[in-house]
Design brief:
Layout (H helix, E strand, L loop, with lengths): L2 H16 L2 H4 L3 H26 L7 H19 L3 H22 L6 H19 L4 E3 L6 E2 L7 E2 L6 H5 L3 H24 L2 H11 L1 H6 L4 H27 L1 E2 L6 H14 L6 H15 L6 H16 L3 H15 L1
Antiparallel strand pairs: 1-2, 3-4
């Protein structure tokens, strides 16, 4: 069986197994935390295409996530666009922003890309928090165009609260699961297909790749744009899930947390980001009661993986395959 077909089968089996979770473990906390896991797993799976597969050190992923969340909230708040329409439109806005970021980074390499993309994210954050002029005056008080430090709320939902009452979160669970399944199928198609080979060639030997006709300009924009759609869609769903969008979506702590998921899971692999997201979210939950030691514990986990398992959890399987071939 080819690697692509094997990954496709694993993806469908995992999706089927996760679909049973709300019936097996019906507690609201477990279901909502699993929904949050789906959101972060979507983000890191797409970030991995840029960072791990294509080798572009972009730190703009949380900014694209935030663009998706804010675009959804603003479409719902100002224009009463239904969320089922606003979410894909917001994802397209994220794609447009990502193409601008891709153009800005075209002639840069390594840490310079990281610095520029982080600067772009900070500029967007400052635009939001420094927006204090009243754009509208609802009963709740002055509302800046970008929401300011208060952010947006009451901009709409997917309708499951009215339809299912207190069980609306179960429907959101399945929406998140469907979103993650589509994102993983997309990642598999990219990594195992011709585009993935082109991205890896530009990552490993850009001079040779260009000499073989792999255009860096075209493929860099491709990877920025393609990964941004599901990232923006995850941001849109995040806003709908929690019912509020504010400057916290630009959080540097969250960005570092998601970056750690990729490192722990294994950069450049299909399943590494998913494994890293699962492990770190479980570790984060397990250390929730220890207060300040929680961040220290996560840091220790990251250091151990960087030193002892630099290829991440997915690297364990790759190492096993390599030894099997040698024997």
């Amino acid at each position: 069986m080819s690697a692509g077909r094997r990954d496709l089968l694993v993806c469908l089996l995992l999706a089927g197994a996760m679909a049973l979770l709300p019936q097996l473990v019906g507690t609201r906390y477990v279901v909502t935390q699993s929904t949050l896991f789906f959101i972060w797993a979507v983000v890191v799976s797409q970030w991995n295409l840029v960072f791990g597969v294509a080798g572009i050190f972009s730190l703009a992923q949380m900014a694209l996530f935030a663009v998706g969340a804010y675009a959804t909230a603003m479409l719902g708040y100002y224009f009463a666009v239904p969320m089922v329409v606003a979410m894909p439109l917001a994802a397209l806005v994220s794609v447009a922003v990502s193409l601008v970021v891709g153009l800005a980074c075209l002639r840069l390499r390594g840490p310079y890309v990281a610095l520029l993309t982080l600067a772009i994210a900070q500029v967007l954050y400052l635009v939001v928090v420094n927006d204090t002029d009243c754009f509208t005056n609802p009963p709740s008080g002055c509302m800046p165009f970008f929401g300011g430090v208060r952010g947006f709320s009451r901009f709409g939902d997917l309708g499951f609260r009215a339809l299912l009452g207190s069980k609306w979160y179960v429907a959101h669970y399945y929406v998140g699961l469907g979103l993650l399944t589509l994102a993983m199928l997309f990642s598999i198609a990219i990594v195992r297909g011709p585009l993935g080979l082109a991205f890896q060639a530009l990552r490993d030997n850009p001079g040779y790749a260009r000499s073989r006709g792999v255009g860096q300009f075209k493929y860099q924009l491709w990877v920025f744009g393609l990964s941004a759609f599901f990232t923006g869609l995850a941001g849109a769903f995040y806003g709908v899930q929690f019912g509020v969008v504010g400057p916290i979506v630009f959080s540097l702590a969250t960005l570092l947390f998601l970056l750690s998921m990729m490192v722990v899971g294994g950069l450049g692999t299909v399943w590494g980001p998913l494994l890293g997201a699962a492990l770190l979210m479980l570790a984060d939950e397990g250390m929730r009661e220890v207060g300040d030691w929680r961040d220290i514990g996560l840091g220790v986990i990251l250091v151990l993986f960087v030193v002892l398992l630099p290829r991440g959890l997915a690297g364990l399987r790759l190492r096993g395959v390599s030894k099997a071939k040698q024997s």
